[in-house]
C-alpha cells in the first residue's frame, strides 16, 4: 500500500470511528432510558450496522471485529426490550359447565427450585456500554472515580476527556489484575499524567497538550497533539498525524512486572502521516534510555495535597511551566 493510500485509510478510519462511536453511545443511552419506541431503536441499529458493513475493507481488521462485537451486544439489548414490550397473549379456551375438574397436581419427589431472577442491568453492566472520566481539574483520579464499577469479565470502552492538571492512575490493583478496557478514547487534556493498563483494543488520542501517557494497546493513533511523552507497549506501529514534539519510550516494567517475563518487542517504528517523506519526521523522537524510564517517580500512590500534585506534575511533564 502506498503512502497516499495509507493516509487515505487513516483519514477514513479516524472519521468513521468518531461517527460510529458517537452513534453507538447515543444508542446505548437510548436503550438505558427504557424507551417505548422499539422500532426507532431497531431502525437506528440497522443504520449503524449498515454503516459498518459499507466500511468493511477500509478499516483495520481488529477494529472491524471490535465494532461487530459491539453491535452484537446492542442487538441483544434491543431484543430484550422488544421481548419485554411484547403484549401478553389473552387467548384462552372458555370453560363449559360440563368441564371436568382438574386432576390434583402430581407430587414431585425432588425439591422445588426457585426461578432465578436476573438483576436489573446497570449503566455499565455489558460490553456495549462505556465509561467516561471527564471534567476534572487539579486532582488525582483512580478506579474509585469511575462512574460505576465493573467486574473482571466486563470489558467496557473508556473515554477520558476534558482534564486539566490531573494525574489518572488506572493501573489495576494487585487483587484485580485482569481488569481491562476494550478501547481507550482520550481527548482534550492538558498538563496531565495518565497511567493506564494494557488493552487489547485501540487507543485513540485527540487534542492533548503537555501530557504523559503510559499505556499498552493493540493499535495507537494520535491526532492534533503536542508536547506529549508516550511510554508505550505495542506490537504494531504507532501512528501520529498533525502532532508535534512527541516522544516515545518503553512501557516501564516497574509498573507492570509481568513484562520482565516476556520477550522484548522490536523498537518502535512510528508512522507520521503528516510527514510522508523518506527523511525522518521532525515531529517525534525516541526516548532511548530505559534506565531513565524506570527510575522516574511514577505517581502510583494517591496524592491529596495540591502542592504535592503540582510538584509531581512539574517533575514528569514535558514542559514544566505548570501554573
What's the topology here?
Blueprint lengths: L2 H30 L5 H18 L5 H25 L44 E12 L15 E13 L13 E8 L2 E6 L3 E15 L2 E5 L2 E8 L5 E3 L2 E7 L20 E2 L11 E3 L3 H5 L11 H11 L7
Please summarize what this structure is.
The chain is α/β, with parallel strands linked by helices. The protein is built from 5 helices and 11 strands; from the N terminus they run αααβββββββββββαα.
Structure characteristics:
323 residues; alpha/beta; 11-stranded parallel beta sheet; 28% helix; 25% strand
Largest sheet: 11 strands, parallel
Q: Could you tell me how far the N terminus lies from the C terminus, measured between alpha carbons in angstroms?
A: 46 Å
Q: How big a fraction of the residues is strand?
A: 25-35%
The Rg value, from CA coordinates, equals 25 Å
The number of helices is 5
Helix content: 25-40%
Write the element-wise H/E pattern from the N-terminal end onward: HHHEEEEEEEEEEEHH
Report the average pLDDT across residues.
78
Amino acid at each position: 500500500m502506498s503512502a497516499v493510500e495509507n493516509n487515505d485509510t487513516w483519514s477514513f478510519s479516524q472519521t468513521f470511528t468518531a461517527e460510529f462511536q458517537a452513534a453507538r453511545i447515543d444508542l446505548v443511552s437510548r436503550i438505558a432510558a427504557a424507551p417505548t419506541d422499539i422500532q426507532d431503536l431497531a431502525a437506528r441499529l440497522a443504520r449503524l450496522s449498515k454503516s459498518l458493513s459499507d466500511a468493511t475493507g477500509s478499516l483495520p481488521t481488529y477494529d472491524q471485529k471490535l465494532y461487530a462485537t459491539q453491535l452484537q451486544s446492542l442487538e441483544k439489548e434491543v431484543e430484550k426490550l422488544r421481548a419485554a414490550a411484547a403484549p401478553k397473549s389473552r387467548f384462552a379456551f372458555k370453560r363449559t359447565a360440563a368441564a371436568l375438574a382438574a386432576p390434583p397436581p402430581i407430587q414431585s419427589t425432588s425439591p422445588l427450585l426457585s426461578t432465578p431472577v436476573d438483576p436489573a442491568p446497570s449503566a455499565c453492566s455489558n460490553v456495549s456500554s462505556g465509561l467516561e472520566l471527564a471534567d476534572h481539574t487539579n486532582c488525582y483520579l483512580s478506579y474509585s472515580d469511575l462512574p460505576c464499577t465493573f467486574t473482571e469479565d466486563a470489558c467496557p470502552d473508556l473515554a477520558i476527556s476534558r482534564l486539566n492538571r490531573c494525574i489518572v492512575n488506572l493501573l489495576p490493583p494487585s487483587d484485580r489484575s485482569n481488569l481491562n478496557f476494550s478501547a481507550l478514547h482520550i481527548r482534550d487534556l492538558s498538563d496531565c499524567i495518565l497511567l493506564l493498563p494494557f488493552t487489547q483494543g485501540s487507543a485513540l488520542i485527540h487534542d492533548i497538550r503537555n501530557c504523559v501517557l503510559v499505556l499498552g494497546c493493540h493499535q495507537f493513533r494520535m491526532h492534533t497533539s503536542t508536547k506529549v511523552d508516550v511510554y508505550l507497549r505495542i506490537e504494531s506501529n504507532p501512528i501520529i498525524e498533525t502532532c508535534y514534539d512527541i516522544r516515545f519510550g518503553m512501557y516501564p516494567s516497574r509498573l507492570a512486572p509481568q513484562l520482565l517475563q516476556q520477550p522484548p518487542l522490536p523498537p518502535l517504528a512510528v508512522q507520521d502521516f503528516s510527514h510522508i517523506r523518506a527523511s525522518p519526521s521532525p515531529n517525534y523522537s525516541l526516548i532511548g534510555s530505559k534506565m531513565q524510564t524506570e527510575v522516574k517517580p511514577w505517581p502510583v500512590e494517591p496524592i491529596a495535597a495540591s502542592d504535592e500534585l503540582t510538584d509531581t506534575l512539574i517533575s514528569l511533564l514535558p514542559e514544566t511551566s505548570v501554573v
